[in-house]
Amino acid sequence: MGIISLEHSSDLFWLGRYLERTFTMQRALLSVYDKCIDNDVTARRDFLAKLYIEDEWGRENANACFHDLIFNIENPHSVRYSLERAYDNAIVLRERISTEALSQIQLAMDAVDAGAHSIHSAAYSMLGLEDRLFAFWGCVSDHVYDNEVLNLIRCGKSIERLDMYIRLEYPAMDMKREFDRFCDTLRNVPRDTPYRYNSKQLSVLVESFDLGLEYTDRKDECLVSLSKIFEPNV
Question: Quick one: which of 93, 196, 214, 229 is 20 to 30 A from 14 by CA?
Answer without folding.
Answer: 214
